[in-house]
Amino acid sequence: VSELQEWRPAIYRKCTDTLWLLLFCLFWAGLMFISGYAVVAGAAERLVLGYDSFGNICGRKNTPVEGVNLSGLDMTNKKYVFFLNSCSQEIQSLKISSLSLCVSSCPQQQLNSLEDLQSFARNNGSFLCVYNLNVSSYTLNPKAAQLCPTLPVPPSKSFPLFNRCVPQNPECYSKYASVLISMVNEMDVFQRILSGILAGRDTVIGLSVLALAFSLILVLAFRFIQTLLIHTLIALVVFGLLFVSGVLWWLHYDYRNDPSTELETEKENVKFLLGYAIFSTIVTVVLLSLIFVLRKRLQYAVQLFRVVGKIIGRIPFLLFQPLWTFLILIVFWVFWVAVLLSLGTAGTAQSTSGGQVEYRALSGICYMAWYHFIGLIWTSEFILACQQMVIAGAVVTCYFNRNKNNPPPHPVLSSISVLFCYHLGTAVKGSFLITILRIPKIVLLYLYNILNQKKNAKPLFNCCFCWVCFQKSCLRYFNQHAYTTTAINGTNFCTSAKDAVGILERNSAKLASISCFGNFLLFLGKVFVVCFTVFGGLMAFNYHRELQAWVVPLLLVGFFAYLMSHSFLSVFEVTADAMFLCFAIDMETNDGTAEKPYFVDQELLTFVSQSNKLTEGQNHRHSRPFQDNEDGTELQPMV
């Protein structure tokens, strides 16, 4: 039998898991090398601003490409990409075969002759023929038919999708959209998501702000929670689930029976709407069943949040932790996307036989992209782990304090300083374990998409996917308690995880049912944010049925809303988990006598006893500790 751990809030600490911190620093040195290489070799402006067939990026000055006479032109005032043959385009190696030019404006009216092209150029300063053809030669040059757009030129509009001139003629528009979507479908997942975001970027930003507002409202609501507020939240969640499910089914029916639904984007919307509607209906049925089963235990959830709110009231700056975590994540994600854009456009410009430019990808880019992707997961998990350790450290500091009316000064700042001085390596190791489980999940999704046509492979992949998700959830749960144990004892990750598992195993029957109610209520809060954000997205995107495949932005908005609500509400979740672990340690270490008094306040002790219906256990607990303490493992106050 292993020796009982001496649970003592450490005053004098030492650095933990330093080798893992060194490994993380070396990994980030590799990321910095990739970032520098991407900035030097890449050209993200080509993807965002668009470029013509001669290697000129629209909207900026350019450098000449060797062997291409029409390269290196100043396109500062020519911001839009115009295709000379927009009604009959083909895809060749992920590129539109039609010759493209940078123009200052798109033709708003149909141009039927070379004279119309000449008049449009003189009146608007937008030249739709190849650059080396003078305006006065539009009607005189015998090769003008090859150097100018195919007539008639349909009216077009500068659509906010990579600054392209999109034809407005229904026939040409349909062909253009089909070709563009075919090209997007052949791209990788990142390029497809990026195109969807850029197509509806204003709506996505607005909905993200809406999700942020909902999350802040919920944080304040849970901080000052009352019984009426819980019932109001549940009523809103039920209404939101039913309403969103109904709207999804109605939109699917409306799109499916709309005779104008001919474009591939609209057909994709119909398919995704059906999937969304089915998924939303299943989630609604499951959550309504759980709400019905747990309706009689809601009062315990109210008491739980009163206790947690009391702790947060002593440490009010805990409510600001998600803000700085979110800001750090946003800065990192912007940096990551910028580097990935540069990597995706890293290539050498080479001239073709027709005097045009072709960009060829550099070798090794694929491996750099995978390394960069692992950096995204690991660093994001590390930032979240730091937030969890800061919150756990502050809660531990206040819990193991004899004078509850006089909490330690600046517990959050003290926890941050302890983290950065001693335990960054522990956060690195815990986040790396989560990353290891995330990578197989992504690989399984990739293989599932490849083998989607093989029906025999689906059940196997579903089982593997569920198993990986279950392992990740369990690991994330134990990681949180390992961080709390590190905040108490100052031990490394493995030792803390072993001690945390031991204490949870001995007290799981007493604490599992208590935390279950709080976690379920927090999950309902996340569902509330997602439901009403997605509803706003449905209403906003429904007005833009044209070219946008808005199912991808809507999915991203829902994911972002859940991530936002989880980031803010995790303060209560982490606080409750840390509080219950400290409570279990307190019960095992002390016995409530004058020599070994409890650190726990009477409100929390009464709540735990009532929720577990252990009134006789409470008297038994006052007579002796949970475990024998003859080895003298009494906790000392943290200073």
UniProtKB/TrEMBL annotation:
Coiled coil: none annotated. The keyword Membrane applies. Residues 615-639 are annotated as: Disordered. It is found in: Cell membrane; Membrane. It is a multi-pass membrane protein. Keywords: Membrane, Transmembrane, Transmembrane helix. GO terms for cellular component: plasma membrane. The keyword Transmembrane applies. Choline transporter. Belongs to the CTL (choline transporter-like) family. This is Choline transporter-like protein. It comes from Chloropsis hardwickii. The lineage of its organism: Eukaryota, Metazoa, Chordata, Craniata, Vertebrata. The gene is Slc44a3.
